[in-house]
Amino acid sequence: MASVLIANDQPLQRVGLRMLLTAEPDLTVVGDTASRAEAVRMSAALRPDVVLLGGRHPWTDDIETIRRIAHPPRLTAVPGPTEAPGPTEAPGPAGPVGQPPRILVLTSTGDEGYAYAALRAGAGGFLLEDATPHELTAAVRVVAAGDAVITPELTRTLIDTVRHERAPRPGERALGPDTFTGRERDVLVAVASGWSNAEIAARLSIAPTTVKSHVSHILAKIGARARVQAVAFAYEYGLVRPAA
C-alpha cells in the first residue's frame, strides 16, 4: 500500500485527484492541502510515500518546496501533543525513519529549466496534467517504488540542458566517473541507457537484487534519490552520449 499526500492549489483538482487515487486498492491518500508550506509540514508529520505536487504556483516556489520535502532537517520529528491534524488530514502509515517522501510533479509545462531544477532539488518524476488517469496512478506507483517517471517529450531537452551545464557548481561535491567501482559504473551506464533492473541483471550476469544494491550505492554517492538523477549525472560527466 502506497500512501500519497496531495499538494495542489486548485480545489477541483485536489478533489479529483483524491477520488482517483482512493479508488485504487493499493493507494491511500493521507492528506491534501493547497499550501506549499503546509505540504512541507504535513510531509514531515505524515511521512507519505509520495507527495503529488501540482497547481499554478510559481515554479520557483515549487523548487523550494521540493527541496524542503526531499531534504528535511529532521526526519524523526513527530507532531507534538498539541498539534491536531488539519481538516483534510487523515492519519496515515508513517514511512521508514530516515526516508523522506518521494515527489511526483504534476505540471502543465514542459519547461526543461523547471524540470531540471526540480530534479536537482529532489523530485522523483514529472507528469503533464493531460496524462490519463491510468498514467497518473501508474506514475505514483513507480515513484513510490523508488524509480523515476519522466515524460518522453522532456527527455531530450533535459539531456541538452545537462550537457550545457557540465561546469562544476559552487559548493557541489567533487564527483566524477572515478567515484564508482567498475561494476557500479557498468550499472550506471546501463541505467542511463534505459535498461530495466531485469535487463541489467541479465546482461551483466548478476542477480536483480545485486543490481538494486548497486543502484542504491550509486544514488548515495551522488546524493540523489531517483534514477532519473543518476541518468542526468551519467550524461553530465560523459559516461553516455545522446543518440544523434
Please sum up the structure shown.
By secondary structure, the chain is α/β, with parallel strands linked by helices. It has 10 helices and 5 strands, in the order βαβαβαβαβαααααα. It has a 5-stranded parallel sheet with strand order 2-1-3-4-5, sandwiched between helices.
Q: Any key phrases for this structure?
A:
single chain; 244 residues; alpha/beta; Rossmann fold; Arc Repressor Mutant, subunit A; five-stranded parallel beta sheet; 10 helices
Overview of this structure, please?
- The protein has 244 residues and is an alpha/beta fold.
- The chain has helices at residues 11-22, 36-46, 59-70, 112-121, 133-144, 152-163, 182-192, 197-204, 208-222, 227-236, and strands at residues 2-8, 27-33, 50-54, 102-107, 125-128.
- It has 2 domains: 2-159, 3-Layer(aba) Sandwich (Rossmann fold), CATH 3.40.50.2300; 173-236, Winged helix-like DNA-binding domain superfamily/Winged helix DNA-binding domain (Arc Repressor Mutant, subunit A).
- It is 46% helix and 12% strand.
- Strand 4, helix 4 (112-121) and strand 5 (125-128) form a beta-alpha-beta unit.
- Helix 2 (36-46) runs parallel beside helix 3 (59-70), helix 3 (59-70) runs parallel beside helix 4 and helix 4 (112-121) crosses helix 6 (152-163).
- The longest helix has 15 residues, at 208-222.
- The model is unreliable at 75-96 and 166-172 (pLDDT under 50).
